[in-house]
């Protein structure tokens, strides 16, 4: 691949514990391209479906990845097994509430996101 670097194998773990992948990517692949891949492969049977790239955050080793960085720049080598699969967690921004719902501040809030820590 580019510059003689080995491809990086990545799988994406969704909020409910299901996975997309694993697939191999060139280290020069941008985080934006990874998000586009996740959106294109998003299971349609999920209750929460991201609408845009900005609705999706990718987390690797506790760090939110920046869109303009490459996969190679975003890697955290500490604790990574050589030749192993990197698991990136996918967090979806909850849908924005309508302005008309703001006056309902006395009603109890519903928790619409969930995290799975494995």
Task: List the main descriptive attributes of the protein structure presented here.
single chain; 118 residues; alpha+beta; five-stranded mixed sheet; 23% strand; globular
State the gist of this model.
It contains two helices and five strands. With 118 residues, the chain is of the alpha+beta class.
Could you characterize the architecture of this molecule?
β3 (about 55-60) and β4 (about 65) form a beta hairpin. The protein is built from 2 helices and 5 strands, in the order ββαββαβ. The relative contact order is 0.24. It is of the alpha+beta class and about 120 residues long. The two termini are about 30 Å apart. The longest helix is centred in the N-terminal third of the chain and has 10 residues, at about 30-40. The chain has a 5-stranded mixed β-sheet.
Which helices and strands appear, and what pairs or packs with what?
Elements: E1 8-13, E2 19-25, H1 31-40, E3 56-60, E4 63-64, H2 71-74, E5 86-92
Parallel strand pairs: 1-5
Antiparallel strand pairs: 1-2, 3-4, 3-5
């Amino acid at each position: 691949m580019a510059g003689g670097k080995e491809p990086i194998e990545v799988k994406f773990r969704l909020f409910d514990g299901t996975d997309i992948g694993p697939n191999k990517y060139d280290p020069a692949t941008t985080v934006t391209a990874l998000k586009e891949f996740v959106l294109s492969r998003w299971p349609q049977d999920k209750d929460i479906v991201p609408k845009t790239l900005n609705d999706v955050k990718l987390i690797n080793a506790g760090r939110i990845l920046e869109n303009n960085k490459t996969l190679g720049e975003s890697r955290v080598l500490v604790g990574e097994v050589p030749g192993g699969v990197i698991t990136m967690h996918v967090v979806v921004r909850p849908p924005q509430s309508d302005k008309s719902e703001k006056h309902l501040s006395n009603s109890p809030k519903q928790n619409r996101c969930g995290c799975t820590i494995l």
